[in-house]
Design a protein that fits this description.
The complex is a heterodimer. Chain A contains 16 helices and no strands. Chain A has one domain (32-561): Cytochrome c oxidase-like, subunit I domain (Cytochrome C Oxidase, Chain A, Up-down Bundle). Helix content of chain A is 65%, strand content 0%. Chain A is mainly alpha-helical. Chain A is globular and about 70 Å long. Chain B has a single domain (3-183), classed as Four Helix Bundle (Hemerythrin (Met), subunit A), CATH 1.20.120.80. Chain B is built from six helices and no strands. Classes of the chains: A mainly alpha, B mainly alpha. The A-B interface holds A 116-117, 120, 188, 191-193, 195-197, 199-201, 222, 226-231, 233-235, 237-238, 241-242, 245-249, 254-257, 260, 264 and B 3, 6-7, 10-11, 14-15, 17-19, 21-22, 24-26, 29, 32-33, 36-38, 111-113, 115-116, 118-120, 122-123.
């Protein structure tokens, strides 16, 4: 399938080679590119860059909380740190990784040559990048720098009326508002692009029922994105109107509501968690079968569960608001709907377990990360069901138990599958394998560090430690638990450092990967590594869910078994 | 239809869904704050039914449909005229909105900062009007291209997508009209 193209190179194609090939030329090539693979790589690199920044912020937070009465980070700086940490990790790490992988993989997996609208794709990426830079520009822009920066300090969900001009004067909150508005427009554009691509550009024979699970998941996630991100944009526009034109959307003095922002935000915010998390399910659903040497168990149920999660996720948002006082009726509804999410999610866990069961397991780094994901995500789901019980939530809302819960979801679930995906697809993207030995060090340090930090973090929460406090008195009995929590941080930092070393080293010295190093079955492995700009010399025809299996085993194709 | 046509349609549908979601929140906010203003003026005191503008806007949906049909049939000049009629009808609608806002702001003293009604009314109606403006810019370009001879039958699909957007803007107006001028008055 990977023959050399016979197309005559145009002047445009050969132009860069004849020009100077200095760093400026390379930079120029990347800046003007509309290739989905390059944009995907830029998304992922941007996301990882912001992961490091957000990680540094988290480290400062943990250092300050390591023992009672510390004064390493002043109170107002602490507020800025947790605001930027949350905002960065959700909008500038999670989203770029989700849509970066989607960008890179979806066209390859469905046998297309690019996304439906390549230039719109580039626009989406640059909006996101500059939105992110705008957020961090708050340190030096506006009225910043004089007083050690004016970064926003309103929390990542920026509750109004706290964000009204009366309570947060200056420009810091506007930086939060505008930067997230801008990244949001970029994300919406990319989501529309992915939907159009999946809907109209699948290779011949690639019916909906034969799409890889990951493509199904990106379709669901993109659909959710265009339904829930515009409401956030709308709420942010309202906040802009309040702050700059004197409207009263969130102004309680003029009769405005103090909680409607919460509804608007969480109508976005909770499905957003699934937008981040569900692609992780997609990675697991692609990786686990390949390393078990089996087809995915229960393809149809997995797809149905995906769409089910997407649908239910839009009716659970107010479980973030049990302590607002919505009344028993609404509390019960949102408690029930939140628990309902556990059903399709549980279906998926069994799908993966049944795929592993009886498989010829190959414990390479991608599968290691997926196994840790299974355990940790299950724990995260169980604490999630605990928190869905409204009376339980009344006790523990805004405590470190909640913080531990969602870090278990987003790190234990998302981050681990992202690393699995990077180890799995790095050979395809670069043509080189990542070092297995460094990969194991990375994995074990991260597992141990993560669990030391976040298992321990549940306990001060149960003992009553609220989130977002910058210090606490010595007599609460939280000191040792917080110290242990903080001690997990260096382990995770070293793990990420090893990962960076692994990437840099393997780019030059890694083993040459070949087209299909994992003997996988989806279409991206039919291209050379790295794939050429046009992806497929001839658009492949698909006859089953595992096109490469059919090519390798013409005597026993998959089709009749599906 | 070629695959580029399918792509354009899928993209436009996705875009319109996102737009609908954006408008929905402004509509919800309007409904939520209906009757909760602490001071006057109230919608009942100052709003008048924009019948003429509504008729213009809704009939422009018909003219844009006739225009795209003419273009697909190769009758370019006729398409240009129908699209021109659409632009004129859209401008008439905008003129109505401008007159309404002028009256509200200058005569009745209702601004975005006056009360919750003003705070929710101007953004909702203004968001819709800004969409009308964007649509008019696209339609005017189509007219200009038709009259300059640049518009060909092969572009029918693209003009069709512009007309989808225009129909959507019309549909939103039906909702806004119902919520603001019928239910909210």
């Amino acid at each position: 399938m990977s023959t050399v193209p016979t197309a005559v190179p145009t002047r445009r194609d050969i132009a860069p080679a004849s020009e100077s090939s200095g760093i400026l030329a390379i930079l120029h090539e990347w800046v003007v590119t509309v290739d989905h693979k390059r944009l995907g790589i830029m998304y992922v690199v941007t996301g990882l860059f912001f992961l490091v920044i957000g990680g540094v912020e988290a480290t400062l937070i943990r250092v300050q909380l390591a023992w009672s009465g510390l004064t390493i980070v002043p109170a107002d700086t602490f507020n800025r740190l947790f605001t930027l940490h949350g905002t960065t990790m959700v909008f500038l790490f999670g989203i770029p990784l989700v849509f970066g992988f989607g960008n890179y993989l979806v066209p390859l997996m469905i046998g297309a040559r690019d996304l439906a609208f390549p230039r719109l794709n580039a626009l989406g990426f640059w909006l996101l990048l500059f939105g992110g830079l705008l957020l961090y520009f708050s340190f030096i822009g506006g009225d910043g720098l004089y007083g050690a920066g004016s970064a926003p300090a309103v929390g990542w969900f920026a509750y109004a009326p706290l964000t009204e001009r009366a309570f947060t004067p200056g420009n810091a909150t506007d930086y939060w508002n505008l930067s997230i508005l801008v990244t949001g427009f970029g994300t919406i554009a990319t989501a529309i692009n992915l939907i159009a691509t999946i809907a109209t550009m699948r290779a011949p024979g690639m019916t909906l029922g034969r799409m890889p699970i990951y493509v199904w998941i990106m379709l669901t996630v993109s659909g959710m994105t265009i339904l829930i991100l515009p409401p956030l944009s709308a709420a942010q526009i309202m906040l802009l109107l309040d702050r700059f034109l004197g409207a009263h959307y969130f102004d309680t003095q003029a009769g405005g509501s103090a909680i409607i922002w919460q509804h608007f935000f969480w109508f976005f915010g909770h499905p957003e968690v699934y937008i981040l998390m569900v692609p992780g399910f997609g990675f697991a659903s692609e990786i686990i079968p390949v390393f078990s040497r089996k087809v995915i168990f229960g393809y149809a149920t997995l797809v149905a569960a995906t769409v089910g999660i997407g649908a239910v996720s839009m009716s659970v948002w107010a479980h973030h608001m049990f302590t607002v006082g919505m009344g028993g009726m609404l509390d019960s509804f949102f408690a029930a709907s939140s628990m309902l999410v556990g059903v399709p999610t549980g279906v998926k866990i069994f799908n993966w377990l049944a795929t592993l069961y009886g498989g010829k397991l190959r414990f390479r780094t991608p599968l290691l990360f997926c196994c840790a994901f299974l355990f940790q995500f299950l724990c995260a789901g169980l604490t999630g069901i605990m928190l869905a019980v409204a009376p339980f939530d009344w006790q523990l809302t805004d405590s470190y138990f909640v913080v531990a819960h969602f870090h278990f979801v987003l790190l234990g679930g998302l981050l681990f599958t992202i690393f699995a995906a990077i180890y799995y697809w790095f050979p395809k993207v670069t043509g080189r394998m990542l070092s297995e030995r460094l990969g194991r060090w990375h994995f074990w340090l991260l597992v141990v560090g993560f669990n030391v930090t976040f298992v321990t973090m549940h306990f001060p929460g149960v003992l009553g430690m609220p989130r977002r406090i910058y210090t606490y008195p010595a007599d609460r009995g939280w000191d040792v638990l917080n110290l242990v929590t903080t001690l997990g941080v260096p382990l995770q930092a070293v793990a990420v450092l090893i990962f960076v070393v692994n990437v840099v080293y393997s780019l030059r010295h890694g083993d040459v990967a070949g087209d299909n190093p994992w003997e996988a079955w989806t279409l991206e492995w039919a291209t050379p590594s790295p794939p050429p700009a046009y992806n497929f010399a001839t658009v492949p025809a698909v006859t089953s869910r595992r096109p490469l299996w059919d090519v390798q085993h013409p005597d026993d194709p998959d089709g009749p078994h599906e | 239809m070629n695959s580029a046509g399918f792509r354009g349609r899928a993209g436009m549908i996705g875009f319109l869904v996102a737009e609908a979601s954006l408008f929905a929140v402004f509509v919800v906010a309007y409904l939520f704050y209906m009757g909760k203003s602490l001071t006057g003026p109230s919608p009942k005191e100052v709003l008048e039914l924009p019948i003429l503008g509504t008729v213009c806007l809704l009939s422009s949906s018909v003219s844009v449909a006739l225009g795209t049909r003419a273009l697909a049939g190769g009758r370019i000049a006729r398409a240009g005229w129908w699209l021109f009629v659409t632009v004129v009808l859209g401008l008439a609608f905008l003129r109505g909105t401008a007159a309404e806002w002028h009256r509200l702001i200058v005569e009745r003293g209702l601004t975005i900062g006056t009360n919750l009604f003003g705070s929710t009314f101007y953004p909702l109606v203004g968001l819709h009007a800004s969409h009308v403006i964007v649509g008019l810019i696209m339609l005017s370009l189509c007219v200009a291209f038709a009259w300059s001879g640049a518009l060909k039958t092969v572009h029918a699909e693209r003009v069709e997508l512009v007309s989808w957007y225009w129909h959507f803007v019309d549909g939103v107006w039906v909702v806004v009209f119902t919520v603001v001028y019928v239910v909210g008055r």
